[in-house]
Amino acid sequence: MKTLTLALAALSLAIPATAQAQRYDSRYGLEPGAHDEIAWDFLEGLTTEIGPRLAGTPEEAAARAWAMDWLRAHGFQNVVNEPFPIQTWVRGEERGHITGPFPQNVVLTALGFSGATPPEGLTGEVVYFENIDALRAVPDGSLAGKIVYLGHAMRATQDGSHYGYFGQPRRQGPGIAAQKGAAAIIIRSVGSDNDRVAHTGATSWPAGVAPIPAAALSNPDADQLERIFERTDGPVTMDLLLTPRHLGETMSGNVTAEIIGRDPSLPPVLLACHLDSWDNSTGAIDDASGCAIAATAALRVAEQGQPLRTIRVLFAGAEETGLWGSAAYSAAHADEEMGVGLESDFGAGLIWRLETNFSQSNPLLFQRLSEAVTPYGVVPAPQLVATGGADLNIMRDQGGPIIDLQQDGTRYFDLHHTPNDTLDKVDPMELAQNVAVWTAVVQVLANEPGDIAGPGIVAGE
Ligand SMILES: [Zn+2]
């Protein structure tokens, strides 16, 4: 054994270090070992010193205070908190146990805005629906007393596009199950992993429909439950305990800060992310990374000299529980024209594609942006129309220019809204590539004297 180990050690030493370094370098478009210390400082600091920061809670308020201190300490000006009210929900106890035919515990977690079971839990027969259309098809009132199990099969995709379609069971499934009279609903986690952790996330209830207990099973437990259904003709039964609470109205807030431009009369460049996270993790990828990327890019541009336009960062509050911050920001700033908006809220995976909604109306600017990002392995996609993310309501409401710097999301939904969304999942090199691409793009935008959209903008949806 020892001989073998020594032989392997000799072999690995024989690979020239430069060959490894070059492969790495070409992948990232950066110096080997690149590490953005400012972005990492934000990411590590927020996730370590604050940790989870559920919307509307004292932890989210602490995150705002922490972020405002950090922004001031790094030279941002006009650092402000814009408070707004939200409806706040907090998790309680959560347990699930299959009572028959093959008794065993399952791993599950309450969905945001889930109703509560009685304090002693509830027991019921589980009714299996393969997808949301099958659930929609049954008559109202036909599921009285039953626990709905809603399966579906989200897969990993590079652009994360499965989240739209396969997220429906979480967003709409509980409301439909409640309308059908169900006592509770469990869904397969909206996630692409096979870890034994469940994915939370907000659900919503149609007007007039009372919330029922609603939880997500980990994917391995969903597989297990489906196998149990295959092996029995008799009833599958389950105990469920969920004790979340509605706290009613509490306050959240949007934190904004600026690098003041040489000509503050020009509409600002808006860099958005969200500061809140789910309560079950430190939200390293969702979305501490996004705020680290946006704020650091602004600072890296400022390092190159005062930009022409003001750069404003928006750390939105209460994104996860209903996009409250984005709506509040758009309402509060409806009369203030924004020059262009970008958002980072998809982890810290490598940026691979540049999209705008002005490639046709301002092709010269699109060309300059393309030249700025191609050194980092980013593909310009002039045929695609950027629509922005959850925190860019203001740009869509104004019909303004939007840029999407698309990240590789192949593994994002393995971690999304789970306890596994922690600092160790962020690759410092990938984070540095994000900052480098954002810096290159914001440098162009913040020094653009003319109308960024050009004439004839294609508005985002
Ligand atoms: Zn997010």
Question: What does this protein structure show overall?
Answer:
The strands form two sheets. This protein has an eight-stranded mixed sheet, sandwiched between helices. An eight-stranded mixed sheet has the order 3-2-9-5-6-7-8-4, sandwiched between helices. The protein has two domains: 8-88 and 248-446, Aminopeptidase; 92-243, Glucose Oxidase, domain 1, CATH 3.50.30. Strand 5 (122-129), helix 5 (132-137) and strand 6 form a beta-alpha-beta unit. It has helices at 2-14, 17-28, 37-49, 58-73, 132-137, 162-166, 168-171, 173-179, 219-230, 284-303, 324-332, 363-373, 393-398, 412-415, 428-446, and strands at 77-90, 94-100, 104-106, 108-110, 122-129, 147-150, 184-188, 214-217, 236-242, 245-259, 269-274, 311-316, 340-343, 351-356, 379-385, 402-407. Helix 3 packs antiparallel against helix 10, helix 10 packs across helix 15 and helix 12 packs antiparallel against helix 15 (428-446). The longest helix has 20 residues, at 284-303. It is built from 15 helices and 16 strands. By secondary structure, the protein is of the alpha/beta class. Bound molecules: zinc ion.
